[in-house]
Amino acid sequence: MSIGNTFLICTRKVDSKGTYTGEPGETTFLRVSPGKTTYGTAEQISKSRWKKAVIAAADGHEDEVTGATGDILFFVHGYNNDIPTVLWRTRTLQNTLTAAGWKGLVVGFDWPSENSTLNYLEDRKDAANVAQRLIDDALELVVDAQFPDDPATPPCKINVHLLGHSTGAYVIMEAFSQAAKNGRYFKKPWRMAQIAFIGGDVSSSSLAADCDWAMPMYERSFRLTNYSNGYDKVLGVSNMKRLGTAPRAGRVGLPSGAPRKAVNIDCSSHFASKDPRQSTFTGTFNHSWHIGDETFALDLAMTLEGSIDRTVVPTRQMVDGKLVLIGGQGRPEFQDQWDEDRPPQ
Asked: What is the pTM of this model?
């Protein structure tokens, strides 16, 4: 697909001057042209118009094996993200995934988070409050597409995925938890395709199979991929602003009791080999290096496609029983020809 407009859902409050703030507000739907480095109310379009544009941008040729016609990845950022950062990360994800051969559309889900580490706890409270918006405005797109109310409307075959960075992982898990209590969503057998966490700011233990909070997410998705980095200083338990919270999934990985549909990719060795001066990123490098990294983008692209089993993705290597991210790898040489079907000779 061509890289053009950037689409976002924004839950920031608009002040009297028409500027987005760091507080929760009404949901708006944005379409941002390629030349802009920030966005405001001038980029708003109606929800119905936005929805049609997003589906049109993501729609592609039908996969003869799976029947899918396209992919949408909702990117949920973490705390301490201002508007230019959210836009840059959404676009960079789109650019790097497209360069890696993924043909889907990245959509940013922008929730209010102040550009200050001192607002961490307030941002986390805001994250819980806006999780309902992720249900109403992102998951609704999935449910309505997969199970339209009008019997004459054919179901949409677009795969929808979620990527949560830092506190964005918390927003995603809370959204699934709240959706489980909502009759409109609970009664329909909808599913998300792939969910991925990078620098996930949720406790490792919360991703166990028997955790009540995680169960709705696992029940409504096909796969969770957690990318961990032991060098992530931001998620360190010694960080005073974190008040000594339990070890985080983005730093120590999944617990031993994680379900089979969850997989951990240890990125520590790959991260340790990276020179920040030669890297593309924004924010704190040890916590935000993923977005802009070509190896991560290729691994994520193949994860979203789901065509290759998690144990044989070429950007991974089994080391001491753990899947480890490795650089310098490409797609399998003949992958683009694997779906060819030839009649008997």
From this structure: 0.92
